[in-house]
Amino acid sequence: MFLRGVWRSARVGADLACCTGRGTDMLQGSFKWQRLRKIYAHNISGLQNSVDGAESGVSSPSLFTATISQMVTEIIGPKEAGLKKPTIPEGKTRHLCDVYGSLSTEDKATFLRVVSRQFGTDHDEVLKAAEGLPQAKEKSEAALLKAEERLQAALVPRYHDLFVQIGRLEGGVKHLVDMRADTLDLLSTVKDNAELRSFSSCLREMLSHWFSAGLLHLQRITWESSCDILQKISEYEAVHPMKNWSDLKRRVGPYRRCFIFTHSTMPREPMVVLHTALTNQISDNIQTIVSTPILDDEDVEDINTAIFYSITSTQKGLQGVELGNYLIKRVVRELQAEFPKMTQFSSLSPIPGFRDWLVGEINKVLSSTALLTSAELKKVAEIAGKEDVLPLVTLKKLLQTNQWMGAESMVETLKDPLMRLCARYLYLEKRRGYAVNPVANFHLRNGAVLWRLNWQADTNPRGISQSCGIMVNYRYFLGDTMRNSQRYMEEQHIEASQQVIDLAQAAGGVDSPAGKSNL
């Protein structure tokens, strides 16, 4: 299957190359694949039914691996070439990209494993270069600098040169973004693969340079924007999915702003999308934002608040590359210029993972009265009619099935305990010292304040399933964001309002002296 797909790509590439004057290099690739195709066709039955590859002694996987290795080597040169890189005809790199794009998911995984394993860092060269440092230091400053240069070169994996060559192609950066997305998908299916992780990290660092804030273009999206961009905005929306074109029109119309970041190498592809509501107060529920009827005009005098209610990174391959925080900062400046009276900036954010975390905590303490008070658990059991079952077992089932939302008395009973536990989850639960919730971590890294929890803020099924309908405002006090960000990153300190601190303290785990807020 692989070689058949490669054969089609090679033939198409060769035909195009002949038409554009780049025929010689591409035709050589075509002849190579024609020869491999004949080998493949001759041995296919033996390769599939014999461990040793039948008469030829060549197995399909080994042929595939050897072919990958040869194609990459032709682009980056043999290891012996060292720092003397060959001049690479663009056609070979383009051919490799076409081949990769034609592969199945399984064959792409093999490709990535081969490249990450065979073209990574040469550990022997690194050790050799490192051993030469003490001797070089004794000679002279110039000798030491030269030795350090050799060590730096040895530390760069060989596939770095492959990334550089691909990045020079038209559409090559997008190809690398997609390749990293494939790598992340593969890593999610394997327990531990240090070579693949190193491969992904190297590619992420390279993409971080190419997608730095200064190279990104801020663009406002309106109903008059091109149809393909509007379609992508609708398809990419992951926080509050759009139901129809009217929904989309509302989100780019009056009292709303939609901004995207694009890149010169991917001009019609949004990198990250930020939806903002223009209001006169900090919103406490999403229904009023996404369900408001479409209005004709804006009253500029009535707008003093910006609510960031959805931010979506659209490219999985850019995971770990800082984009969203830069977008928020740029949008704040844009809005301040457009609305001089705007003084309040806040998110209205979902809390993905809260219900799953809570169910996990319930599983730890099923036979106790932890998490809720005895009186609260008793009332839950009475309303549910399950007084003969462990109260936490009843609560767990109610949460997992969302049945608790069907009875007003149950909703009222669970309000206080769920708000307490949500504050504990956001304010106290940590991973490596930082907030365990990814959305919280994002805004806190940006310098926002964990400002307010909102009950019944998202009553859609998705909101109930994710966070029991609770949403949170992360508020941006522009004069304090830099200090807050620094304290969070260096001291793991979360700046929070008194409401959040009081709720977390009621849930247990916050000392009164430490739980003081000026907000």
Automatic annotation (TrEMBL):
One of its GO terms (molecular function) is malonyl-CoA decarboxylase activity. Pfam families: MCD, MCD_N. Residues 119-211 form the Malonyl-CoA decarboxylase N-terminal domain. One of its GO terms (cellular component) is peroxisomal matrix. It comes from the Eukaryota. This is MLYCD protein. Residues 214-476 form the Malonyl-CoA decarboxylase C-terminal domain. Coiled coil: none annotated. The gene is MLYCD. GO terms for biological process: acetyl-CoA biosynthetic process; fatty acid biosynthetic process; malonyl-CoA catabolic process.
